[in-house]
Amino acid sequence: MIGLGKMGLSHLAIVRSHPQVNLVAACDSNAYLTDVLGKHTGLKCYADLDKMLDSEQLDAVVVSTPSKLHAGMVEKALQRGLHVFCEKPFVLDVRDGERLIALADEKKLVTQVGYHYRFVGAFQEAAKVVASGALGEIHHVRAEAYGPVVLRPKGGTWRTAKNEGGGALYDYACHAIDTVGMVFGVPTSVGGVVVNRLFSRDVEDEIYCTMHFGNGASGQLAVNWSDESYRKMSTRLTVWGRNGRLNADRQECQVFLREPHPARPDLTKGWSVRYTTDLTEEVWYYLRGEEYSAQIDHFVKCAGERRADGVNGFRSALDTDRVVAMIRAAEHGEAPGHGPGNGFAAGPTRIPTRSGFWDRLFGREPVARMASKGAR
Predict the structure, then answer these.
(1) At what angle do helices 174-183 and 314-331 cross, to 10 degrees?
(2) How far out from the chain centre does Cα 55 lie?
(3) Are 235 and 249 in contact (CB under 8 A)?
(4) Which residue, 114, 221, 241, is CA-closest to 176?
(5) I need a labelling partner for 129 at 20 to 30 A (CA). Which of 61, 189, 249, 362 fits?
(6) What DSSP designation does 226 have?
(7) Residue 372: what are its φ and ψ, rounded to 5°?
(8) How many C-beta atoms surround the C-beta of residue 245 within 10 A?
């Protein structure tokens, strides 16, 4: 285990309970945390990553550190011949991702990135419905992600620091973008990007944009991590086709068909609903949701079989990073090229602010807004 923050501790609990895994060691810079873990669990802990990698006999690592550290730590693990599970986002610079993919391929190693929605039954069902052709030709997709992360001005963590890879784009939007890629396909360009800073000083709290796909379909992305009407993160996907539509979130997949389709005889004319509880297999250990254990189990099985064609390897995760890069570029009127083949470096950037007459008159804090033309 590399990194023992919120997600790192969650992964640690899941990995340690897995019947086919022997958790050998963990690494984190927080001495108090590692001392407590070592004392009460007997887990061998390190403060230095190189020392841990050189001292222990390992088969794989789980990387759960702040986003800006991913590339360097993943590279060290791959160079030592270790399979790698990395938390999302994969990388902040697309060029780093391309280099790491080549290295993993060269060494024939298993890779996976922690986009856990790929293991949610309702989203898996949505992907099957779209692939079946039951909806007909798809012409529009809408991806939404809302939650109560930043609700007031406050002191920052790495998640709210632009130079650490923080902000709603990397923390929330990448989940929604990856789910679009899973269910329908990867956008080839974006436009009409709007970025709002509501409470954060250094990063965006809202992102909205239009997505364009290679088959001529369009899409919308709407993300807000400062929405107090939600108890926790909620991601929703809506897909429109000539023969109907579907709505999917963590709880259910709703499908409306104008006419039945022979590829899916279980879906009748009108509305059909499949619930995640009926679509999800039981896991050996439950923490936060079945999908968190399911993704770790998938990685363990792929690593054990040295099967590099598993769900959400570095390649598909880099497709998501490329879309994030396009959004960043369109936000600032730049032209990164079209994805998912461009090599644009996705780096956090300054968000300009704008204030009106009444804001200046009454001394109110300006809210950042940006709208720009996207890549065409």
Answers:
(1) 120
(2) 32
(3) yes
(4) 221
(5) 189
(6) B
(7) -145, 165
(8) 18
Cβ atoms of 173 and 251 within 8 Å: the answer is no
Packing angle, helices 121-132 and 174-183, rounded to 10? 40
Which residues face 197 on adjacent strands?
368
- Return the C-alpha torsion angle 104, 317, 250, 258, nearest 10: -120
- Per-residue pLDDT of the chain in tens (376 residues, 90 and over written 9): 999 999 999 999 999 999 999 999 999 999 999 999 999 999 999 999 999 999 999 999 999 999 999 999 999 999 999 999 999 999 999 999 999 999 999 999 999 999 999 999 999 999 999 999 999 999 999 999 999 999 998 766 767 777 777 799 999 999 999 999 999 999 999 999 999 999 998 899 999 999 999 999 999 999 999 999 999 999 999 999 999 999 999 999 999 999 999 999 999 999 999 999 999 999 999 999 999 999 999 999 999 999 999 999 999 999 999 999 999 999 877 765 444 444 443 333 333 333 444 444 444 444 433 333 333 3
Contact 274, 252 (CB under 8 A): yes
Q: Which one-letter amino acid corresponds to residue 178?
A: D
